[in-house]
Write a structure and sequence with these properties.
This protein is an alpha/beta fold and 244 residues long. The chain has six helices and eleven strands.
Length: 244
């Protein structure tokens, strides 16, 4: 079983969303196999289906002056920030396929999210950062110690349509965390956010390149797929045709 991986670099949110929608449509028609898009965005705020506008603390004028876009989207969750130094992943996967943990005709959305969390937990572990899940709080969190509370290092918000997933995860690698002051991240007021850069020890300092490689490797392991790196969507379509 293969997973096509397309690394897009840093692209505007609207461009990434349009490409994601194109890949989702192709996956629903079985024109391509399961695909993972990895990318960065310029600073942008997104509001999921359960978002409250009051969780955006910055004024419309401030956001406009800074050129910060605001997008209302169909993923689950509340308000999220994306920006440089943050690894964003959009897995486009048919949950009716052969997936680990599948007990019925399709993998349930909650079980799918647990797999995404495991990918990110292992990716953080590659940099010497111990992380965990927290009950009723989706995402990945650092392990507390003494008076230091857990911090959120990765956010997850997904959408499923006709069994095919979209949207996904955002892992803070070298993100400027001051930008999170514009919002109440995911509507959570009693915990802070952090990044691999801040949490990693001296021997495991992350870069975007090695974070991408780690995430791709762990995605393949957790989802039991051989990862095929591709240069473009056209190449993925060609690979699907050749494999048939």
């Amino acid at each position: 079983m293969f997973l096509h991986l397309l690394h897009l670099g840093r692209i505007p949110y609207a461009e990434g969303l349009a490409l994601q929608q194109k890949v989702v449509a192709a996956r629903k028609q079985n024109l391509i196999g399961d695909t993972l898009l990895l990318l960065e965005h310029p600073p942008v705020l997104t509001l999921g289906r359960n978002a409250s506008r009051s969780n955006i603390l910055a004024s419309d004028e401030f956001l406009a002056q800074r050129g910060i876009e605001l997008h209302e989207i169909n993923r689950g969750g509340d308000v999220t920030y994306h920006g440089p130094g943050q690894l964003v992943g959009y897995p486009i996967i048919d949950l009716r396929g052969d997936l680990p943990g599948k007990k019925g005709p399709h993998l349930g959305p909650v079980d799918y999210v647990r797999l995404l969390e495991e990918v990110l937990i292992r990716t953080c572990g590659d940099f010497g950062v111990m992380t965990q899940r927290i009950a009723k709080r989706t995402g990945v969190w650092t392990v507390p110690g003494g008076s230091i509370q857990e911090k959120k290092i990765a956010a997850i918000g997904v959408h499923v349509s006709q069994g095919v997933t979209s949207h996904g995860f955002a892992l803070n690698v070298t993100t400027d965390l001051r930008d999170f002051e514009w919002i109440i991240p995911c509507g959570i007021t009693d915990r802070a956010v952090t990044s691999l850069e801040l949490e990693a020890d001296g021997g495991h300092q992350p870069t975007m390149e090695n974070a991408i490689n780690s995430a791709a490797r762990n995605f393949g392991r957790i989802f039991e797929r051989q990862v095929l790196w591709s240069e473009s969507l056209d190449e993925i379509l060609h690979q699907k045709t050749v494999s048939e």
